[in-house]
Design brief:
Elements: E1 7-12, H1 23-29, E2 34-37, E3 54-57, E4 60-61, E5 64-65, H2 69-81, E6 85-90, H3 100-109, E7 113-117, H4 122-129, E8 143-147, H5 155-166, E9 170-174, H6 180-189, E10 197-202, E11 210-215, H7 219-225, E12 232-236, H8 243-246, E13 258-261, H9 268-277, E14 281-284, E15 288-291, H10 296-304, E16 311-314, H11 317-330, E17 341-344, H12 347-355, E18 362-363, H13 369-379, E19 386-392, H14 398-405, E20 409-420, H15 428-435, E21 439-442, H16 445-453, E22 463-466, H17 469-477, E23 484-485, H18 491-503
Parallel strand pairs: 1-6, 1-7, 2-3, 2-6, 8-9, 13-14, 13-21, 16-17, 16-19, 17-18, 19-20, 21-22, 22-23
Antiparallel strand pairs: 4-5, 9-12, 10-11, 10-12, 15-20
């Protein structure tokens, strides 16, 4: 017997851009115990689900149904009846030419709870990302959205498509690429002018979006010539001409570039979002994760006695997080840290200290640990000064040794350890093998080592980007020479270097 009342959330995942998932959708996904997802769902969204969540692929594409609809309905009913929080993640919107209604009916007939969380439909978002407004006051005020599943050779379907052609306004065709030629012919027979502007948009809103323009009379030929395959949205109407002035996605500097981000999942968001904002098709391949140090008690004792040091030195933002997670478990008043000064390796580490409302007294000039020793040599006397260096277990002890050589009394606290990420929940490794990439981005030596330890068959032409000289050195040790190295060794500097590289 179920110990709690289950519920199934039907969530519209949007058309592809992970940023188009609604806040409500992300919220329920973050609490899911079971996620049942479709072929058209961007698998990056699975990263929002808890690590403990059961992920079930129920993808359906033309000629390949992993799970029949009846089986999906039964799965949702069974999992919800077990008392689980179930998220049914569907591409676009659950009720726009999807089968969300059937799934809800199955849940309702079983007497189970469900909620609908609408999503952004590709019928609207696809044209928008191609610079095509589906309505425009001076052009049209009618919008028709229709499905192209029916074979236009069927008399009933032929009549239906002819009626669509006779209608006024913009027409949006979903799931109709395979029947596009016949559908266009039937629309023309219904009275639609052959010269009606048309555009087909594949993988709408993603970084690899493809747009083919033409007219109702020749769009099928143009789609065939470009080798465009499903999934695609096709727009018919005078609004298509507005894309000549309003097209914006292709103008972004990284549009069409496929980039792999190899940071830990917890840290990848800032870098991934910055690259997506510039138009890149980004997918995350997390290779490392942060875990507590082997001797957490010893580290906690150092944190407890932090007020006894004159300097606390952080080598990473993760170290800052680990330190203050324990500090605020031990103390409820920030003043308990005393009059200690803070030093940081890198701007990101310094920023994380500031987020805890502490002033940063010293920052390494060149964003690496050895540079901080030289910065201390120039700016501070550390003779007989008690210092606590917070670092990951596997990092070099060069910083502490350098400070000790200058006369400092140094203790080291191992705040965390970096381990290989064993899971590939978003199946990014599979995507790298099947779809390839233009660039793989590395922000630490550990991500480099773990990447090459996977021994993946690397796609032809794959280049590498490094955040700085230490990471570059590790790449070279692994037999790879980076095409990009950031001059400023932080995330903004890395994004700038990548943008400049592709501009050249």
């Amino acid at each position: 017997m179920a110990t709690k009342c289950g519920i199934c959330f039907l969530v519209g995942a949007g058309p592809g851009d992970p940023g188009l998932l609604t806040l409500r959708g992300r919220d329920v996904l973050s609490r899911a115990e079971v996620v049942v997802y479709d072929h058209l769902v961007n698998r990056e969204l699975l990263g929002f689900a808890p690590e403990s969540a059961e992920l079930v692929y129920a993808g359906k594409k033309s000629g390949d149904h992993t799970m029949p609809q009846e089986e999906i309905n039964r799965l949702l009913v069974d999992k919800t009846a077990e008392g689980k929080n179930v998220v049914r993640l569907k591409g676009g919107d659950p009720f726009v030419f999807a089968r969300g209604a059937e799934e809800c009916l199955a849940l309702a007939e079983a007497g189970l709870r469900f909620q609908i969380i609408p999503g952004v439909s590709s019928a609207i978002a696809g044209p928008a990302y191609a610079g095509i407004p589906v309505t425009q006051r001076s052009v049209n005020s009618v919008l028709t959205v229709f499905s192209g599943h029916q074979d236009p050779a069927d008399p009933a379907a032929a009549k239906f498509y002819a009626a669509i052609g006779a209608a006024e306004g913009t027409k949006i065709l979903l799931m109709g690429v395979e029947h596009l030629r016949g559908i266009a012919e039937r629309m023309i027979s219904g009275g639609a002018p052959r010269e009606t502007p048309a555009a087909a948009i594949r993988w709408a809103t993603r970084g690899d979006q493809q747009t083919v323009s033409g007219t109702l009379g020749d769009i099928a030929d143009r789609v065939r010539e470009e080798g465009m395959l499903p999934p695609a949205v096709v727009v018919f109407g005078d609004v298509v001409k507005l894309s000549e002035k309003l097209a914006w996605t292709a103008a972004r500097p990284l549009f069409g570039r496929r980039i792999v981000v190899t940071r830990s999942r917890a840290q990848s968001g800032k870098l991934s979002n910055a690259l997506r904002d510039l138009g890149a098709d980004v997918y995350e391949l997390p290779l490392i994760r942060r875990e507590p140090p082997p001797d957490l008690r010893e580290f906690a004792e150092l944190v407890q006695d932090a007020h006894g040091y004159e300097w606390i030195v952080f080598t990473s933002a993760n170290g800052v997080d680990s330190f203050f997670e324990i500090f605020y478990k031990l103390y409820d008043d920030a003043r308990e840290i005393g009059g200690v000064k803070f030093a940081a390796v890198g701007a990101a580490t310094a920023q994380r200290i500031k987020e805890h409302h502490f002033h940063v007294d010293l920052v390494a000039e060149n964003f690496h640990a050895e540079s901080l020793v030289e910065t201390f040599r120039k700016q501070a006397d550390v003779e007989n000064v008690k210092m606590l260096v917070i670092r990951p277990e596997e990092a070099s002890g060069a910083l502490a040794a350098g400070l000790a050589k200058m006369g400092a009394i140094v203790d080291e606290g191992f705040a965390y350890r970096t381990v290989a990420e064993p899971e590939d929940r978003t199946r990014a490794r599979e995507r790298l093998e099947t779809e390839g990439a233009d660039l793989a981005v590395f922000t630490s030596s550990s991500t480099v080592r773990n990447f090459f330890a996977l021994k993946l068959p690397l796609p032809s032409g794959l280049k590498f980007a490094s955040i700085g000289p230490v990471t570059t050195k590790t790449l070279k040790e692994c037999g790879a020479r980076p095409a990009v190295e950031a001059a400023r060794h932080d995330i903004p500097g890395l994004v700038e270097a990548i943008t400049d590289y592709f501009a050249r």
